Amino acid sequence: MNQPLAYRMRPTHIDNIVGQQHLVGKGKIIRRMVEAKMLSSMILYGPPGIGKTSIASAIAGTTKFAFRTLNAASDTKKDLQIVVEEAKMSGTVILLLDEVHRLDKPKQDFLLPHLENGRIILIGATTENPYITINPAIRSRTQIFELKPLSNEDIQHALWSAVNDSEKGFGKENVAITDEALLHFSRATNGDLRSSLNSLELAIKSTAPNEQGTINITLDIAEECIQKKALTHDKDGDAHYDVISALQKSIRGSDVNAAMHYLARLIEAGDLPIISRRLMVIAYEDIGLANPSAASRTVTAVQAAEKLGFPEARIPLANVVVDLCLSPKSNSSYVAIDAALQDVRAGKSGDVPDHLRDSHYNGATKLGRGVNYLYPHGYPGAWVNQQYLPDKLKKASYYIPNHTGKYEDTLAKQYESINSKKKRNNSK
After folding, report:
1. Burial class (CB in 10 A: 0-12, 13-18, 19+), 291
2. Can you tell me the distance from the alpha carbon of 199 to that of 189, in angstroms, rounded to the nearest whole number?
3. E strand spans, 295-397
4. Do 316 and 352 share a domain, yes or no?
5. How far apart (Å, rounded) are the C-alpha atoms in residues 93 and 13?
């Protein structure tokens, strides 16, 4: 078993893919393509280690087509020619092309006609947004699918499979792994299954059996092999979520010192993606319209942290935590959208008023679409009294402004002024 565990555990059938059920689950698009034997070239994009290569491998294994792997950055046009010649001789070949966003024009021009005639089924893999980084000529000949980060449960399931698989994994070894260690392997790699499997392999191979011949993998061993500390040694992993919750509540409560403490615990655990996501949620949920520029600064700080990585990432993260802690707070827009969603989900929607409906097509006027619409820019103050909500909800009010920051205070005064005008006009 000289090949890495992550390589050995790659699925050879679509049923064995970990996660990505929005693409490979029953009735979903990639499964439908495979079952109908109507494969088309595709681009798979998403973070590292979440299954791009696994999906390509599973498609090939399920369809029994030949499967070849190349890298768009490092392999040459000659390498592509070899794959094409194989396809001419033996039939369709599935080509996994890693880093497809780095495919240069000569390779692309060579590949395109073979994609069009179906001789090569291209599965391009990239961590970059293909709508931005991939040439339109390739995009137009492929379907684009976004892969989602794997859940902790997905990764734990894959790890257990590796421990118990006698053919590809460590099923022939006497391995005992604690729940805490398994949880840490699944969580500390931030959804990267490849990294989790390789860390598990290191732990098993570098741990000597005890007198009974058992290889015991504990949390301490998991931390050492993955080089990240667990937040606490709690069996169920609740402390992880407790610390995230405490960070948000400390910022919401304007306690800088407590927020710094919880940020430090998350940094020590190496949870950059979780920190980044949570800070952006806080900026919009808890600071909101009281200080919109704080949200912009948060996004900028998160982008800087992600580019820098740890340990330097701690600096922009600390800056923005102080900023958010001491900022005025408002959750008015968050409360407003939740109230509106509650009505929509309860079936309180109603028809869009005729004067607001789309009128940019022949026959719209005969249907009354857009008729009697009043164009606000043609009136003083760019405001005119007319009904916008459906009849069923015309008296609904969702937004209740706060006055905790200068920006929302200005918005609140405008909102109250418009409401006063509405009341005066409706009373006439």
Report:
1. buried
2. 9
3. none
4. no
5. 17
| Contact of 368 with 293, CB cutoff 8 Å | no
* Selection from 300, 91, 272, 109 nearest residue 192 by Cα: 272
Nearest CA-CA partner of 339 in 298, 423, 399, 278:
399
| Residue 233 belongs to some domain of the structure | no
The pLDDT value recorded for residue 85 is: 92
349, 396 Cβ separation under 8 angstroms = no
Is the pTM value of this prediction over 0.90? no
Q: Nearest 5°: phi and psi at 361?
A: -155, 155
d(CA 64, CA 387) in angstroms, rounded, equals: 61
C-alpha 62/C-alpha 35 separation (Å) is 9
Q: Are strands 215-217 and 120-126 parallel, antiparallel or unpaired?
A: unpaired
**Tokens 């000659």 belong to residue:** 78
Written as one string, the DSSP assignment of 187-249 is: HTTTT-HHHHHHHHHHHHHTS---TTS-EEE-HHHHHHHHT---S---TT-HHHHHHHHHHHH
What is the pLDDT, as a whole number, of residue 234? 45
Q: CA-to-CA distance for 155 and 149, rounded, in angstroms?
A: 10
User: In terms of domains, do 314 and 271 share one?
Assistant: yes
Average pLDDT over residues 86-94: 87
Residues 317 and 263: beta-carbon distance below 8 Å: yes
Q: CA nearest 200: which of 174, 177, 171?
A: 177
* CATH number for position 9: 3.40.50.300
